[in-house]
Predict the 3D structure of the following.
Amino acid sequence: MSKEAKQYIVLGLGRFGSSVARTLSSKGYDVLAIDTDDCRVLDISSEVTHAVEADATDEEALKALGVNNFDVAVVSIGQNIHASILATLVLKELGVKYVVAKAQHAMHGKVLSKVGADRIVYPERDMGVRVANNLISTNLLDYIELSPDYRIIELVADKRYAGQTLRKLDLRRKYGVNVIAIKANDKVILSPEADHSINEGDLLVVVGHADGLKELRD
């Protein structure tokens, strides 16, 4: 997805879709929000650029809304798998360059990819993974999966790290991971120097292979 994208369509205004629409709008982007439920449309109308009651699977309706002029579309239709697949197909056929589609499960995701979705997201699954990883590690605050093998985690420095420099800890050699940022006393240090000294309670943002990060946490 281009970083220059300024206009977004969000189709389906359930919890996930409305959250995406509101977040994009709050960051200054133009958002066209679409749903068949007039109550959902009314509820979000004051928070986005445009909110329209329409059928996301209706090619003529989407064409009339000028969806081909938008940079990115997010298909966040809930339980109606057939509708989400058809909406994705219609958007691609109308010329939307980048379509992000919410999938309920792996097979749904495969079909969405087949009909042209550029990115598949699994909100329920991903949130479950994040919650589980938080539960099993007392000092792990956040967890982002970049790919099946590489992740970014936020780790609170405990007594093992206190008073030590990154050079002395040598996490790259020991675990094959890199500290890409440190937050200490509300100050964020990006790409910290090797001689930076860590204090207990500092928040370390670490990127690396899943195996190395697991060793680091254990």
Observations:
- The two ends are 36 Å apart (CA to CA).
